[in-house]
Amino acid sequence: MALRDSVRQLPEDAAYYERVRLGELIAHALEGKREKDNAAVAQALAPHAVAVAPRQPTGDDTAADAAFLVDAAQRRKFERAVDELGHHWAGRVRLRLLGPLAPYDFVPPPPEEA
Description:
- Helix content is 46%, strand content 9%.
- It has helices at 2-9, 16-45, 75-88; strands spanning 51-55, 65-69.
- The protein has a two-stranded antiparallel ribbon with strand order 1-2.
- The protein starts with a helix and ends in a 26-residue tail after the last helix.
- The model has no long low-confidence stretch (mean pLDDT 84).
C-alpha cells in the first residue's frame, strides 16, 4: 500500500519503475490467491468425486479451474456442494459448473514410443 501511495504522488514518467514493481507485486499476489482458490475448490468438492484433476486457470478472470470425475449416483450431492461453495464465495467468485463432459482429464497419456 505504501508503494501504491508513493506512485500516486509522483508524475507518471518519474514513477515508471515503481509502477512496474507495483504491477509485479499485484500479479504475484493474484497468482497466490488463484493457487489457494484452486486448492479450496478441490478440497471442498473432492469428497463428492471419484477423482479430481486441478487445472491451471487460463484467463485473467479465472480464479480456479478443475475437472471432477463424479459417479452418476453422487451427482446431486456434488451439485449441492458446488452451490454451497458458490454461496460461501458470493460477491467474490462466480462458480460455473459444466457437464457432464467426456472424462478426457482422467485418461492417462499414451506410453512414449522408444
